[in-house]
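FYI - complex with S-adenosylmethionine, inputs then prediction.
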Amino acid sequence: MEESSIIAFNQENVYCGESPKGYGKAYFAKHNFQAGDIVMHGFGRIVNHQTSRFSMQIGLNKHCLPTKWTGRYLNHSCEPNCFVRTRPDGFPDLIALRDIKKGEEITYEYFMSEFVWSPCAQEKRISCRCGAKKCFKKILSFSQLNDSHKRALKKRKIISSYLYNT
Ligand SMILES: C[S@@+](CC[C@H](N)C(=O)[O-])C[C@H]1O[C@@H](n2cnc3c(N)ncnc32)[C@H](O)[C@@H]1O
Ligand SMILES: [Zn+2]
């Protein structure tokens, strides 16, 4: 997909603002979505390492660096409203896991894209502040989940495609 059409699509669907939960910037729904709708297209320059904060993993040694309008401000929630589905071009789409109301913060679970936290990753050091009733308090990567959780995510098809081979 062309970056310009990705940006235009995302700008139709979300706006960027400060998270009320105090962890910086966030995306919010510009209109209502139904479960299964594409909410955002992810995109970014590809690098071979995770960065401390903004990269999104798309392969075992492949990470992308999203910009403001291509996914840089996607926050984690333990009760997310979106999941990851890999596009044919290898980049992630954020799909509505359930109906989403206009104004809701757009979130996914970081283990849907990140296999392992590198030593520099902020998520290794911070507590989750998503505010969900069942907040896990930690932000885990896919490799830290137990086997039954991994199997369930694979069965539900809500993770980045490269994770199916891990
Ligand atoms: C990809 S950035 C998301 C944008 C970020 N809010 C910002 O303004 O830079 C990831 C960072 O956001 C923060 N973050 C995202 N979700 C969080 C959560 N559930 N609890 C605490 N911090 C979170 C952490 O600092 C994390 O390293
Ligand atoms: Zn949480």
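The chain is about 15% helix and 25% strand. The mean pLDDT is 97.
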